[in-house]
TrEMBL record, chain A:
The lineage of its organism: Eukaryota, Viridiplantae, Streptophyta, Embryophyta, Tracheophyta. InterPro entries: AHP1-5/YPD1 (IPR045871), HPT_dom_sf (IPR036641), Sig_transdc_His_kin_Hpt_dom (IPR008207). Residues 39-144 form the HPt domain. It is found in: Cytoplasm, Cytosol; Nucleus. This is Histidine-containing phosphotransfer protein. The keyword Phosphoprotein applies. Signal peptide: none annotated. One of its GO terms (cellular component) is cytosol. Pfam families: Hpt (PF01627). Keywords: Acetylation, Cytokinin signaling pathway, Cytoplasm, Nucleus, Phosphoprotein, Two-component regulatory system. Histidine-containing phosphotransfer domain (HPt) contains an active histidine that mediates the phosphotransfer.
TrEMBL record, chain B:
Residues 36-151 form the Response regulatory domain. The modification 4-aspartylphosphate is found at D86. Gene3D superfamilies: 3.40.50.2300. Keywords: Phosphoprotein. The keyword Phosphoprotein applies. This is Response regulatory domain-containing protein. It comes from Carya illinoinensis (Pecan).
Amino acid sequence: MDGVAQLQKQLVDFTDSLFQEGFLDEQFNQLQQLQDESNPDFVVEVVSLFFEDSERLLNELAKALEQKTIDFRKVDAHVHQFKGSSSSIGAQRVQKVCIAFRNYCEEQNIEGCLKCLQQVKLEYSLVKNKLETLFKIEKQLIAAGGSIPT
Amino acid sequence: MAPTIESVYLGNGGLSEGNNKRSNRFVKATWKNNLTALVVDNVELCRVLERENLRAYGVETVAVETGEAAVELVASGSTFNLIFIDIYLPTMSGPEAVRQIRAMGVRSKIIGLTAIITEKDEQDFFAAGIDEFYEKPLDPDWFVPIIREVDNQI
């Protein structure tokens, strides 16, 4: 198998695994479909926005949950936003934790919230890693003269 | 009155605004009418995706970050067939913006958006005057039929 074909296979296999392992869902496909010649870097740009937003939200959440008196409405607002952005790009596992997180907020359950914060941090770093790897393989493929299979 | 969309400067940074519509060869649907939409969402990521999804389906779309900007745009005479508006906006809330827009006599189809649907939010938003309420993100499965309905009613 030549270099380009090998990279293409690697890309397809890796992408498939992300869906199978639940890191990404259908929304990510929708996102990819918005990319075309008029918007060639759309996916990378949107995912970069997601990384920026997420890091900010995780900081805010950590701060809010460190307070002596926790303002659960504030925590809830951040989690709500995180759920919105993660579901928008198809980051399924992150989104799922956000739903559980929100329930704990409603119950004003500090233990539950702290647990969810740890979980969402972990899921976020996992999906970030996966997406960065995905983009790296795409870059290699393009550099080798190939094109991304649609 | 013709929409003044092209003449409105939005300056919401982030991904390039470009034109408000995509050139025809990239569009996934065409409609009988020239359809226009307004997106109101404070979260850049969501706003960009909502805007691009609508443009991909042939709807000339403008996006703003706040309820105030939406109200101002409508008050200045811009008309839209569809308005997609998030419930949580920083200063003027989604419901308040919708109330003010409806008070101006606007009969556009207004779709309320939220990250997580709750009963209370649903009640508040419908009371303010939205026509439909959906969880984000925009999915062609539900928004394309809405566009079709609006297109057929013109």
